[in-house]
Hints:
The complex is a heterodimer. Chain A is α+β, with helices and mostly antiparallel strands. Chain A has helices at residues 7-22, 37-45, 56-70, 96-115, 126-144, 146-157, 176-186, 200-203, 206-224, 234-241, 246-267, 269-288, 294-305, 314-331, 335-340, 344-348, 357-367, 370-377, 380-385, 407-418, 452-466; strands at 30-35, 80-81, 86-91, 388-394, 399-404, 425-433, 438-444, 470-476, 479-485, 490-495. Chain A has a five-stranded mixed sheet with strand order 6-7-8-9-10, with helices on one face. Chain A has a three-stranded mixed sheet with strand order 1-3-2. In chain A, helix 1 crosses helix 12 and helix 5 (126-144) packs antiparallel against helix 11 (246-267). Helix content of chain B is 36%, strand content 22%. Strand 4 (388-394) of chain A pairs antiparallel with strand 2 (63-66) of chain B.
Amino acid sequence: MPKSLTPPLRTLKEEIEGHAREFGLDFFDTRFEVVSYDELNMVAAYGGFPTRYPHWRWGMEYEQLSKGYEYGLSKIYELVINNDPCYAYLLESNSDVDQKLVMAHVYGHCDFFKNNFSFRHTNRRMIDDMANHATRVRRWVDKIGVEKVEDFIDRTLSLENLIDQHAPHIRRNPDPRRAEDEMKSNERVEGFKVDREYMRGFINPSEFLDSQKKRVEDEKQKSKKFPERPQRDVLQFLLENAPLEPWEADILAIIRDEAYYFAPQGQTKIMNEGWASYWHSTIMTRRALKDDEVIDYADRHSGTMGTRPGSLNPYKLGIELWRDIEDRWNKGRFGKEWDECDDLRARRSWDKKTGLGREKIFEVRKHYNDITFIDTFLTAEFAIEQKLFVYGFNDKRNSWEILDREFRKVKNKLLQQLTNFGQPIIEVVDGNHENRGELLIAHKHDGQDLKGDYARETLRNVQSLWRRPTSIITRYDNKGVLLRFDGQNHTEKKIDL
Amino acid sequence: MSLRIHQDHSRFKQIVRGKIKSNLRKYVQKGEMIGKKGKDTISIPIPFIDIPHFKYGHKEQGGVGQGDGEVGQQLSPGAVQPGDGHQAGQGEGDHTLEVDVTLDELAQILGEELRLPNIERRHNEKIVTQKIKYTGVNTTGPESLRHFKRTYKQALRRQIAMGTYDPARPVIIPTREDRRYRSYKLQELPETNAVIIYMMDVSGSMGDEQKEIVRIESFWLDTWLRHQYKGLESRYIIHDAVAREVDRDTFFHTRESGGTMISSAYKLCRDIIKADYPKSAWNVYPFHFSDGDNWSADDTRQCIEMLREDILPGVNQFAYGQVESPYGSGQFIKDLREAVGDSNNVALSEIADKDAIYPSIKDFLGKGR
């Protein structure tokens, strides 16, 4: 299994780590392990972890990675996990220049994991927890049987994105203290205290009393509803309210834990990959490269930065944005004066020699996620320079094509893509739908329809956990639709929204 | 050393295998699979192996890209990850996973599902062949195996290190030491040889659909026999009133008008066996497909005579598939059944349509000969 670093690699590591610290990167202790490509594919299939619970999809992942490698289509260069200490992997057959590049890149990630606010609440002992999850699942497999456990994992994995991506640590359970408040509000409405009986009509006019009564009634009505307000964390709702066997609840909790652990990585993909790329490029070109390594380095670097017209490369977009921010803050291209300057020539030659770039990017890497990053720092100039465009599907020509290069549209599309990690927002609306214990969930439609066949299959999986008929409200072609699965049949009904 | 992932990997493969098995009948009837054949593997679309999520229809979504191009310009195919739009109320959609299955595995699955017996070999002589495998890069080797890119990189690297590289005039001159060559190893493979001699009636009455059936069926026969024998050759004979040997492509794409003299094909088949496939070293499989409308009873008599005297004694199994054509199905299979139907190395099968390919494979291969 993984070998410890050979003396030459240890020397390289010390060198790169030294450069990284000199540049001000701040990271957890970082451990590199040297692995064969087969092992690397395994670890990558497990999402970077040495152990995961048994499931066929890791096998599928592994098959695809191995094939990609064998056919020369893809090669994993870096793999690092957010943990304290950070773990990262080096491919044993790589050349020195590759190893240096990977190390430099990894230190960028580790710095980001440690400092970016999105990761503040992540479990830094995840490597242990993943191993524990594996043990727990294995134990259930021994007790309950492979088929049943695997089948249940399949169904829960189908729901793994139904968490509250942006607020993993806010508890939204009813607080027991609220129950007391409810008790109070159950009391009879008496209005304000009246000292002189003849004043009662003035102090508590009957309209006022009525409205008070109505408010109390409404409150009561509301608290009968469950959940009280729509709940984004569908998995938690199911955990607390679905009639699950202990082993099922345990597995569902594991899937939910892991989903929350990975969520911040999805929310900072562009920043994080860009940051790591920025630092490997800076460390390599300013410090670590030897003359005869330049070509190989350039080859690798350009390989990572390549773009294809129909997709967005987070490494490329990220690194360019970081560089742009640094450049703008170095030249003082920010603030009121800059924003209000309409003179194109003045803008082009604008350089106040403020030299704040480095400081700025370190600050940004702390407080932003992809959405706020793009929203704040993606400028019209940048979009033009980077040749960004919106693409879409043209039904008439049955092909994908470039739709627009207008800045506003590009930015909006990007933000839309990043919202909720590019996934539809789904909420639990009612756990006692139709007053029959049915489950009602809703898709908050934002202009994009759900993929229909997937939606029905997923609904089936929700139902199998809830064990009562389950429905989802969504919209297709601008019309409200209620999809329902009762355990046997799917039905579909038009509804008014 | 075994990796932990292997358990998950074999579980995945087991699931895929199960899916293939349960869909086998469907795959057998489909011709497009044959088009997806690589050298030793075939891509099979497996429905529903991915885990469904609530997600957007891909076509709805679009996205932001980066690069040159005018508004309205089409993105090259493959640039966008293919996906499928949704239509409310529409069926399954085509989200499939393409899995590569080796032909050998596919044959195993076919064998299990159709309960095919393993073939009894008549000849077990091992003929050893050598196979070249390119495994690495070396500093010496024949010029024909020079690895251009590696050589070039090496030269570039050296010139930069020596300071003789001039970006203004980027000329790279590799020296002897820069050259890199592909290196290979010889592997020895023991083989048991077999030959399939495909014969097909291409007279006017055999239409495209009939040929498609033959094409699909021959793919499966090939696959099974290749699984049973390491070395497998195929020869192709087409005939109407006269027979000639052709290559595979011509075999499936020739259409003649003219009458049918089956004996012409059998004659050629006999001659080929005599010339190239001595009994002592070869397992021989003639497969003949026709709509069964032979020219005359006299010709049929000749066919039967040739089968009895020349062909059947020397081959593992002779198989005849009668493909129903719009002009009806002929008499030939009945004649064969009467004359040689009870010999144990004769397999006869009537193939009415694509649905019948599946049982027909069993007719052909079920004897284990």
